[in-house]
Design brief:
The chain is an alpha/beta fold. The chain has one domain. It is built from five helices and four strands. Strands 1-4-2-3 form a four-stranded parallel beta sheet, with helices on one face. Helix 2 runs antiparallel to helix 3 and helix 3 packs across helix 5. The longest helix is centred in the middle third of the chain and has 13 residues. The protein is globular and about 35 Å long.
């Protein structure tokens, strides 16, 4: 299952495949017609406490990933639900964050590609 990433504010394209919003909050200022989502899995997003703690601070990125991977490991059914929704087709994890390198969709993609390892240092 190829896993792509795309910011919610970017124009959706057919090549995106199955588009899944993976943020707990709806992207500010965007309507459903712009996002062209196939699913919104807000439950797979980091907890409110973790999201607020992280605050998109680059210095906290490694610890954010470690904590988020732990949350994902404790919610395996959500991860399996995401895998099932995508099947073998290309999926695009859609996110609203400005930082395109350090956000929950980037971390989630890494987690999925590693096969669900709770250790962010484990190589795929």
């Amino acid at each position: 299952m190829p896993i792509m990433l795309k910011r919610a504010y970017a124009v959706p394209q057919d090549e995106d495949g199955f588009r899944i919003l993976v943020d707990r909050l709806w992207p500010r200022g965007l309507g459903k017609e712009h996002l062209r989502l196939d699913a919104w899995l807000k439950e797979i997003a980091p907890s409110d406490n973790l999201r607020q703690w992280f605050g998109h601070d680059p210095e906290k990125w490694d610890e954010f990933k470690r904590r988020y991977f732990e949350e994902l490991g404790n919610n395996r059914e959500l991860v399996e639900d995401l895998r099932a929704k995508g099947g073998t087709a290309r999926i695009t994890l859609v996110y609203g964050a400005r930082d395109e390198k350090r956000n929950n969709a980037v971390a989630l993609r890494e987690y999925l590609l590693k096969g669900g390892s709770a250790d962010p240092r484990k190589s795929g």
